[in-house]
Amino acid sequence: MPSENTFSITAIRSFVQKYLLQSKVSVDPFARNSRLCDYTNDINPATAAKWHMDAEAFLEMLYTNGVKADCILLDPPYSPRQIIECYRGAGVSVTMQTTQNSRLYRRVRDAALRICTDDAVVLSFGWSSSGMGSGRGFELSEVLLVCHGGAHNDTICIAERRVQSNNLELHLKVKDA
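Now predict its structure.
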């Protein structure tokens, strides 16, 4: 069955742990109550995460503090409805802009790129197989499709490894053009 705590699902937890075992510094900007990573954040202060900030602001804070991660977990709310529930649950006002998940994903991925080591692995979770992508210098390593049965959406889990570390400036220039 699906769970709002993605990493409590056995197959997904095994997928994550395989990469975390190889990691020295790990980051989870949407951690909820997961304590699997070294740096955990969730916008909701009622969760077990160490920080309670907007995910993009959290990643920017890590960048400013010189944190470099070799494993990042990206498990944001999967749909506009989930974004609304997440923000309202944290007491954050919701606007039409905040419910546009593609904007959220892009902003967070761009911020995550700034703290990636040259050989970082980014694990992305959702109802889409979009991840960091080749435009950010990543190559797909592994895909796990988790079927939850019935009318539930599958969870798509992807692992991508950074193969080009000089793409940050190029990616940000193209994005701003």
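The chain has five helices and six strands.
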